[in-house]
């Protein structure tokens, strides 16, 4: 018998089911059965499937929200920080896409899900807001161009990472043309070409 704590078993089961059959088709009953516990035991730890999904994103996928929240302007190089953000975001969206895609096939379920997570301080907009806040802080520190649109820059970087997951997930093999590390480095360098400080003497 699995000796892991019930909460860990529930999260493991939810993660596996959401990856294999999608969020829309996963039920708390199936999660409880896969975790070897009752639905009542599941509800002692989580309020429902929506809270479980948020917990899976936070605790079972590559850390993105945590990384963005830990960044401090002036520490490390901006390019290095953006490269790591892009690498982590690409991995995060690669694993999130198969789980969440089924939501968009069922508009009523999507609306219920949006209503449920509204009070959980969660959602796909949060990484954009956090990255925007980090870029604004770097701008104030003088390490990014004054007047650069940091929200647009955050949207471009994270949008490219999400698009990478979407564009290649349906292809045979699903292999993008660039390795993850090359993609992250190229994306960070390209973005900084637009928002980084201008070379001395260039107006």
Name the quaternary structure.
single chain
Choose one word for the global shape: elongated
Name the beta content range. under 5%
Count the E strands. Answer: 0
Instruction: Give a short account of the largest sheet.
Output: none
| Number of helical elements | 10
Order of helices and strands: HHHHHHHHHH
Q: How would you characterize the overall build of this protein?
A:
Helix content is 66%, strand content 0%. The chain is mainly alpha-helical.
Chart the SSEs and their pairings:
Elements: H1 6-21, H2 28-35, H3 39-45, H4 49-59, H5 65-70, H6 78-100, H7 107-117, H8 126-140, H9 150-169, H10 180-195
Helix pairs in contact: 1-2, 1-4, 1-6, 6-9, 6-10, 8-9, 9-10
Summarize this structure as a short list of keywords or feature phrases:
203 residues; elongated
Give a quick summary of the entry:
With 203 residues, the protein is mainly α. It has 10 helices and no strands.
